[in-house]
Amino acid sequence: MNSLSVIRASYRRLSPLYDVLEGAIFHSGRKDAVALANKRANQRILDVGVGTGLALPLYRKDSWVVGIDASPEMLKRAKARMRRKRLTNIGGLLEMDAMNMGFADRSFDAVVAMHVASVVPDPMKLIAEMKRVCVPGGDIVVVNHFASSGGPLRMIEKACGPFAEVIGFRPDVRLMHLADGARLQIVQVRRVNLGGYWRLIHFRNAPAEPARA
Known about the structure:
This protein is α/β, with parallel strands linked by helices. It has helices spanning 4-14, 18-22, 27-37, 72-85, 123-133, 151-160, 164-167, 175-182, and strands at 44-48, 64-69, 90-95, 108-114, 134-145, 185-192, 198-204.
């Protein structure tokens, strides 16, 4: 994906079909991600790439949730869902660039990004921003498709690479590249959703080590 304008154009086309295409098939991973990020009462949680708000009803009622997305069309549907479900724990649904968030450091107790890492132009910048806005010791949960290590699936992913702008995501994001570059503690990695083709990574935003004297 080359730019925010490409992302917005892609999801402008996709927004009317998003709930049908990504609703039931990704529900289990969505539910697992929210459960890991929202374990305690009164948490401040950021949902990055909130889309049409499919995850919003899954958050605890005693949490305070903010969702961001680059697509105004997707956010319009998320706001309609919030009103329809009478979700009073949603603190805001904002149009924002996930790689350049307008939040202060350490604003949230947990940060979640589902199916965003393969959409943004720079996945590492996304993770760096998630780390920045998360409190030390907080949870960061990423759900995404990652490039296969080999075999027929890898061949298909390579063939799809030139069409990333058309299909709406990049199939070449590598799990270990993302994990190693994140400088976060990995709590767990597991397969989720239909067929286990997607991965859930649970990071802990470990406090910085004190400088040596």
